[in-house]
Amino acid sequence: MIQFDRVTKRYPNGREALREVSLRVEPGEFVFLTGRSGAGKSSILKLIALLERPTRGTVVVNGQDTGSLPARAVPAYRRRLGVVFQDHQLLMDRPVYDNVALPLMVADSPLRDIDKRVRAALDQVGLLEQERALPSELSVGEQQRVGIARAVVGKPAVLIADEPTGNLDHALALDVMRLFRRFQEVGVTVVVATHDQSLVDGFGQRSIHVDGGKVTA
Amino acid sequence: MSSPVTWVTRHLHSMFAALGRLLRRPLSTLLTTLVIAVALSLPAGLWLVVKNARAATGDLATAVQVTAYMKVGTPIARADQLARQLRERPEVASVRVIPAEQALKEFREYSGFGSALDALTDNPLPHALVVQPRVEQHDGGTIEALRAFLIAAPDVDIVQADAEWARRLAALLDVLRTLFLAAAGLLAVGVLAVIGNTIRLEIGARREEIEVTKLVGGSDAFVRRPFLYAGLFQGLFGGLLALGLVALVIGAVEAPIARLTALYGGRFRLGGLSLEEAGMVLLVGALLGLVGAWIGAARHLSRIEPRP
């Protein structure tokens, strides 16, 4: 479960990205965050991923008040999340396999488990054959699927994605969304930020609209 | 908490990854290693100078001694009695009594005046006491006190305590030893700075990887680990190269020093680093590498957070 209670986020440059935002996402729910660029969608995801902390208000993720989390506990918190970005943030000098294995490596998982789970994640996104390829040898859509495999390999309770289809054509974007829905079907809470209203309309999931740093619908 | 096997596997992985990175950049690794090697070889060389100077000048503990010559004609029993009194003094390590007959015999043997001495009807030499102070009592005050005690003895004629040269040499060696410590300290700071800076550059070059690793939950310890191994290896390689440099210098100066000592009628062989000393150079190199990497990594890694 994700809960924002009257959350305000002001950046050091004085810009107020979120103002008194309250929202709630139930466990296992699939929610779109919609709104134009700069509306505050990404700030909501950053607060969930603890890339930022709220200026005011509380953010609770999986029962954990992120505002009270000490810095040393942040890595363990992030391991329980899956994060997908528009620009993938892959390690371009490492093969696909190593990229997907990274969350398990940092969690000190046993090697046998790592191998099993990396292959399972790559199988889920249809890239098992490409495990030795470098990301630069893959198409943009495939790179995004590597990012998704990396996000889900640790079996997170919450998967967040910031404009995951921004660089993809419509057909590939639909493929990625279907992938996210498959994860939701097995109990993962999925929050996807997008400005592509047609994608949202085509999927019939709940959407939270953000405008000017406020939730408007 | 990970199992010991997983823990060891992770460390081996970080270790080989760090080693691989160093070997993939041979020129940069070699240059850093060379700087560390020079920094380590200088104090190691200075240490060798001190060590060899000690060996060349003999054992100072035996060089500082006080000799008391009894009045001619004093019975040997009085000399023995004085020796017993001296042995009871805490600052005295040993006392050797040289009877007049033995002194004359040795003089006859080594002086080359054998036939001339045969003309003497009486032994002109006195009994002598050679007093060896304890090593920790080699200061001027103790020697003076011993001299005063001996001069005050009624049967003692002359006291010779010519330890000044030994004290001067000891002071010179002390200066060298202090120089060695100062050089070692300064160069250690230099090694820390070199390795810290190398790690800083490496962290800068791998910023994106660090950001991604932290994004997926990598702890500071996990991110820091390969950098620590890189520092450790560079320090170790620097230590190995330093041993090579020291060996090269010894090889180069060994023959000229042998020729020089031969000109003075001596035989002196320049000593290198012992196994323990070589191990110490490697250990110090590795530790400096590790600490330098830790300082560099701790300072710069904490500033890198995942890019939103």
Sum up the overall morphology of chain B in one term: elongated
Q: What is the N-to-C succession of helices and strands of chain B? A: HHHEHEHHEHEHHHH
Mean pLDDT over the full residue set of chain A: 90
What pair of chains forms the biggest interface? A-B, 27 and 25 residues
Taking the sheet with the most strands of chain A, its summary is: 6 strands, mixed
Strand arrangement, major sheet of chain B: 2-3-1-4
As residue ranges, the low-confidence spans of chain B are none
The residue-averaged pLDDT of chain B reads 85
Can you offer a commentary on this structure?
- The complex is a heterodimer of chains A (217) and B (308).
- With 217 residues, chain A is α/β, with parallel strands linked by helices.
- Helix content of chain A is 35%, strand content 26%.
- Chain A contains 7 helices and 10 strands.
- In chain A, strands 6-7-8-3-9-10 form a 6-stranded mixed β-sheet, with helices on both faces. Chain A has a 4-stranded antiparallel β-sheet with strand order 2-1-4-5, covered by helices on one side.
- In chain A, α4 (111-124) crosses α5 (140-152) and α5 (140-152) packs parallel to α6 (170-185).
- With 308 residues, chain B is of the alpha+beta class.
- Chain B has 2 domains: 4-59 and 167-301, no CATH class; 65-162, Alpha-Beta Plaits (2-Layer Sandwich), CATH 3.30.70.
- Helix content of chain B is 72%, strand content 7%.
- Chain B contains 11 helices and 4 strands; from the N terminus they run αααβαβααβαβαααα.
- Chain B has a 4-stranded antiparallel β-sheet.
- In chain B, α8 (164-205) packs parallel to α11 (275-301) and α10 (220-263) runs antiparallel to α11 (275-301).
- Chain B starts with a helix and ends in a 7-residue tail after the last helix.
- The mean pLDDT of chain B is 85.
- At the A-B interface, α2 and α3 of A face α1 and α9 of B.
